[in-house]
Each structure stands twice: as C-alpha cells, then as structure tokens.
Specification:
59% of the residues lie in helices and 0% in strands. It contains twelve helices and no strands. The radius of gyration is 19 Å and the shape is globular. The site of iron/sulfur cluster has 13 residues, from loops.
Amino acid sequence: MSVTKLEIEKVLKKLSEQFKNPGGMVVGGPYKTLVGVILSARTRDEQVLKLLPNLFKVYPNVEVMADASVSEIQSMINTIGMYKQKAKNLKKMADTVVKDFNGKIPDNIDDLVLLAGVGRKTASVVLVACFNKPAIAVDTHVHRVTNRMGWVNTKIPLHTESSLLKLVPKKSHDLINRVFVKFGRYICIPSKPRCWMCPVKQYCGFGDKNTIRPKDANLIESDIIRREEELEVLRKEVLYICQDI
Ligand code: SF4
C-alpha cells in the first residue's frame, strides 16, 4: 500500500487533534529538553518529570552540570532505571558541550550525536522542539506504527527515518514523533493494537486489525485520558518551576 501526501496530512491532523500536547520531555530550552530526553530512555515520562525540578535547581545550566561529579549527579537521578549510566552520560555530555561547543547545545544533528547518551532519536527531538529544524525522531513507536500503516516498509529505525524524511512534507516533521509516540503508547500498541478505537483505521494498511471492542473499553479509554492529563500537569509543573532557573 502506498500512501499519498494528502493521506499523511489527514492522519497527522486527526491524531494531533486527539493528542494536542507536546512530547513529555519538551520542558524548556535546549539544555533542559536534552537532559529530559537523555533521562527518559527506557523510563516512564512521569518518573523523569518528577525528578527534573530538583535536578534543574541544582544544575541550572550545562556549565554547572559540567562542574559536578558523576556520583553527585547519580544521587539526583537514582529513582530511575539505568541511573548510573545516565549520570555518566550527563556529565560527559556537559563536559563536551562546555569544552567543544562553547557551552551551547549544538543545533545540528552531526554535532548532537557526538554527545554522550545522544542518538539520532534524541537529537531529532531537540532539533524539532528547540531549534525548529526539520527532523524526524524515530523511536520504537514511530517505527512500528508507520510500518503497520504501510507508510514505510523497513526493518530498522534508521531506514524508517530516511524513508519518512522523503515521504512526509517538511512542515509536518515535528508532528511525527509528537503524535505517533502517544498513539503507539495508547492505541497502536505492540501486541493486539486497539484498532477498535483507532481514529485513523481507514488509512491503515495493517492486515490483522483488532476491531472488536472489548468489555473494558470504557475503562481503557478513560485511563488514556487520565494518564495524558497527569503527564501534562507534571510537564507544566516542570516548566513553571524551572522558568526562572
Ligand atoms: S488500525 Fe490498528 S494497526 Fe492500524 S494504525 Fe490503527 S491501531 Fe494501528
């Protein structure tokens, strides 16, 4: 199934109406957003958002973080998974930004991926959210959903990214990660996608749609709304608490 630009636009419009909020880690300028995205790898957004206010109070900018020791950073983030490795990455990232980039988070993908803990996905989130640059952040959700819908036919996220960059109009690049991460987390889930509640199923080429509404459908739907609302409250708290930092 090949998809048209018009269909892409319709799908993105529908999903952005349903998922209006920015990504959970869009919490301020490039430094804060980069730190949030590095910490959110394989960790629930809620857990990261809860620790960010204190972290940014202690390390308000990249220079202060570069002056910290790894063990100090560890003690600030030890409520999340892989905190030891993430603390090492944050320290190394801050050192590199201070030494090689004059204290400024780079605004291009080639330099961003040189930083510890930063892959193409993380770099793309920062480019789109903080520098308004066209980029498509492909994580496991974006990769799965766009393959299921028939937009791409790829085995690895890197190929999904290059296919999507050709396929999706530049003005819509920022929407891809924002809407498909939430859509993949709540509706087009890995096993047994919830096609019965999918607002874009008429545009989807997936051959094994799960269209039967389950008995607990109402519960599932209200839980999605509750989780999204809770996440947005936490994200706004981080923005509010950290606005003067
Ligand atoms: S119809 Fe099903 S498989 Fe297709 S995008 Fe929607 S939830 Fe995913």
